[in-house]
Amino acid sequence: MMGLRRLLRCLAPHFGSCRQAFHGQRQQGFSLLEALVAMSIASIALASLYRTVGQSSKGVVDVESRIEAALVARSVLASSTFAEEAERQPSGVAGVWHWHVQMQAEQIPLREEDGRPAPGAPLRAAKFTVEVTRGKDGPMVMTWTTWKPYRSEP
Q: In Å, how far are 84, 105, 135 from 153, measured between CA atoms?
C-alpha cells in the first residue's frame, strides 16, 4: 500500500514531490559546485563560439579584399593590349587600392604543338607584373603576372 502511494505521488504533475517520495528528503535547486561546473562549461562553449565567429568574419573580410584587389589587377591588365601601351602608366590609384606595374622585356622562343622549336625569330614580349596594395604604403594584397607582346620592333 505504501508503494502505491509513492507511485501515485510520482505520477502527480508536481515533479518535486516525486523526488521527495523516493529519497525521503527534500532537495531544492543546485549545489554551489554544480552551478560552478555548469557555468564553466557554458563559458568554455561560448568562448569557442565567439572565437569561431570572429575567425569566420575575418576570413570573409580577407576574401572580399582579395577579390577587390584581383578586380583592380585585371582592370589594369585589360587596359592595354600591347607592352608599349602599358609603359605609359606605370602606377595608379583606384579607390583605396594603389597599383604598380613592373615590366621586363623577354624573348620567348616559339614552339610547335609537339614541343619542337618553330622556325623564325622568337616573340618579343614583356613580362607584365601588377602589384596591388591597400593604401599608398600598405601591405601588398595581390600580385598578378602575365606577358604582353610588343606591337613593333624598338
A: 11, 12, 37
Phi, psi of 143 (to 5 degrees): -130, 130
φ/ψ region of 60 (left if φ > 0, alpha if ψ in -120 to 50, else beta) reads alpha
Q: Residue 7 is part of which domain span?
A: 1-30
> What pLDDT, in 10s, does the model give residues 55-83?
887 777 788 888 888 888 888 888 888 88
In the numeric block, which cell numbers belong to residue 51? Answer: 572565437
Listed in sequence order, the residues at least 6 apart from 18 whose beta carbon sits closer than 8 Å to its beta carbon are 9, 10, 12
Report pLDDT digits (tens) over 13-29.
Answer: 554 544 555 555 666 77
Q: Is residue 108 within 8 Å of residue 125, measured between CB atoms?
A: yes
Give how many domains the chain has, as a whole number: 2
User: Within this chain, do residues 79 and 107 fall inside the same structural domain, yes or no?
Assistant: yes
| Residue linked to cell 602575365 | 146
Inter-residue contact 66 to 141 (CB < 8 Å): yes
Q: Which amino acid is at 82?
A: F
